[in-house]
Design brief:
Elements: H1 18-37, H2 41-60, H3 68-87, H4 94-107, H5 112-133, H6 140-219, H7 224-252, H8 262-267, E1 273-278, H9 286-306, E2 312-318, E3 322-329, H10 347-356, E4 361-366, E5 373-380
Parallel strand pairs: 1-2
Antiparallel strand pairs: 2-3, 3-5, 4-5
């Protein structure tokens, strides 16, 4: 079974991972403190609603790409936090407000709108702290909010460049390997041509001359001390011709990578990747092994494009009648963006065609056990190796 290409099915929402869960728990805990710090039941009810709105705003802002809807959701979080500060000064309403400030620049497309939004929020935060504290020094909180927003943008840009560099390195490594294999194949073909044109022809000529000499020696009734070595030399020449031709044929065969090369592939991957092998290896043809190797390479490269920054798991399972290889990522991590490195759009189709040519199947799609994308390859084997 083959599903659609990865790029067409990329979600616009970031996966809910342990970092996001930690943030939710922390904000709820701070919200509970803020509710309890309110002076009367009515204020506690209002602050509780504000805390809930702040939490929902943060959850609604978890989009993989900047949008004004995500910016509005963060604005709700910040506004709710500022209102909670005013109603419950002894609480921790600053936490949702500052959390919103830290993600606001990431939710609004770059430009004047982002600058205006961050500036407005910083001023509002400083004025709110000044009103609650009764001191002009509270305005410095606005400077702190601006600094947090600015650092958030810088950190996001740094992570994006790092992730893009990893994706580009994966692409470059795959291209470099293909070029090396093409160059090695060309060199092997050159050596094969030289062996065929020089060595094989020379040995064939030697064999013909030895046979002619043997025929003359037999006609002249030469002694066995002469004809015996001639017979052995002619036999060696014939064997040399056959061995030279076999060597030429072997050189012309392409060098195929296989399942045993996956360890080096995963170990040399520029991102975070892990390989696990289970079962007893079976007999797998060179073409099938090469198809599996290429499928894993393409799947890992796709993961760096669309789940940039995610750890990649490669699981190789030898079964009695089949080899199963699964490559899985964990989706786009919180705070990360897709690398922006675009593929040709034919990688999954080419992978499927290569695997099907050796009698196997490819299954690709969202991982059924949680977040992320999974590509599983299955090829038949012919018993224990």
């Amino acid at each position: 079974m083959l599903t659609k290409e990865r790029g067409a099915g990329t979600s616009r929402w970031r996966p809910f991972d342990h970092r996001a869960l930690t943030g939710v728990v922390a904000m709820l805990a701070c919200g509970a403190v803020t509710v309890l710090a309110a002076s009367d039941p009515t204020r506690r009810l209002i602050v509780g609603v504000l805390v809930l709105c702040a939490e929902l705003g943060m959850l609604a802002s978890r989009q993989t790409r900047p949008s004004y809807s995500a910016g509005f959701a963060v604005a709700v979080t910040i506004g709710s936090g500022l209102a909670a500060i005013a109603l419950s000064p002894s609480g921790l309403g600053e936490v949702p407000a500052l959390a919103g400030v830290s993600v606001l620049p990431l939710c609004i497309p770059a430009g004047p709108a982002r600058i205006a939004a961050v500036g407005t929020v910083s001023i509002a935060f400083g004025l709110t702290i000044m009103a609650v504290s009764g001191s002009l020094g509270g305005l410095l909180a606005g400077v702190g909010a601006w600094f947090i927003a600015d650092r958030s943008v810088a950190h996001s840009a740094l992570e994006a460049e790092r992730d893009r560099a990893v994706a580009l390195l994966a692409e470059v490594e795959a291209s470099r390997q293909a070029q090396q294999e093409a160059a090695a194949t060309e060199e092997r073909n050159r050596i094969a041509r030289e062996m065929h044109d020089v060595l094989a022809h020379s040995l064939a000529g030697l064999s013909v001359h030895l046979q002619a000499i043997r025929a003359i020696a037999r006609r002249e009734n030469s002694p066995a001390s002469l004809t015996g070595p001639l017979d052995r030399a002619a036999g060696l020449a014939r064997d040399g011709v056959q061995e030279a031709r076999a060597a030429v044929d072997a050189l012309r065969l392409p060098h195929l990578r296989g399942v045993d090369d996956l360890k080096a592939l995963v170990g040399g991957f520029p991102g975070d990747a892990d390989l696990q092998v289970t079962g007893h290896p079976g007999r797998l043809g060179p073409e099938a092994g090469h198809a599996v190797y290429r499928a894993v390479q393409e799947a890992m490269t796709n993961a760096t494009r669309y789940a940039t920054g995610s750890a990649i798991e490669v699981r190789v399972a030898w079964e009695e009648r089949a080899l199963r290889v699964a490559v899985r990522d964990h989706g786009l991590p919180a705070g990360h963006r897709p690398s922006g490195v675009m593929g040709s759009g034919t990688g999954l189709r080419s992978m499927s065609e290569r695997i099907e040519a050796v009698g196997g199947t490819v299954d690709a799609g969202p991982d059924p056990s949680g977040n992320g994308w999974r590509i599983e390859v299955r090829v038949p084997v012919s018993g224990a190796g």
